[in-house]
Specification:
Layout: E1 9-10, E2 16-18, H1 25-30, E3 35-43, E4 50-52, E5 63-73, E6 80-85, E7 96-105, E8 111-119, E9 122-123, E10 136-143, E11 152-161, E12 167-176, E13 184-189, E14 194-204
Antiparallel strand pairs: 1-2, 3-14, 4-13, 5-10, 5-14, 6-9, 6-13, 7-8, 7-12, 10-11, 11-12
Amino acid sequence: MGTLKVDNIQTESGSAIITNGAIPESTLRSSNVGMILLNTTDITTNTATVTFDSSLITDNYSKYILEYEGLKPVTDAVAFRSRYSTDNGGSFLTGTFNYGYHYTALGAASSSGSGNTKSNYAVNDYPAGNNANHQYAGTFHINGMRDSGSYLTIRHEWIQENATDNTYVSQEGWVIENASVINFIEYSFASGNIADGTFKFYGLV
């Protein structure tokens, strides 16, 4: 049996089903396919920030998810953080993020949780180490960015070996009581550059 290979398929009315070998994003959205990959960013050299802009963050999606792996800082003992903009990175939200977390140390009988507040950045309380083979790997769930009637909320699950060679699994969250419509996210370490990491940004239908 032979194989039919095509780059483009259209409906009788001319609507694209496959274009250049890929299903268009608009077709996936209208089919309610769940998570749609919008962008992949692979950092391999020192980079100050990873950003996702207004070409990706639109009213097409109400929730966004960031999956990442292999995330490493250049500088030892620095925390990962994010901030948010309503004008495509021209300025950033300021104010208080209410923060809370719960963690378990892997391979040890140690578990705890707490909370506090953060200013201007959604930053965690777990500085990352920059030793060989240490990495962050996890998922951010970002809600309320496109809803002027809801506060911005962020949930983060991750595994990390920290600057003191302890490995943790943790869930943490932030909320800022600001209902602005957001179209830009910036991720960075609190000091120094990002040395490595792969980031996949999804919209959720």
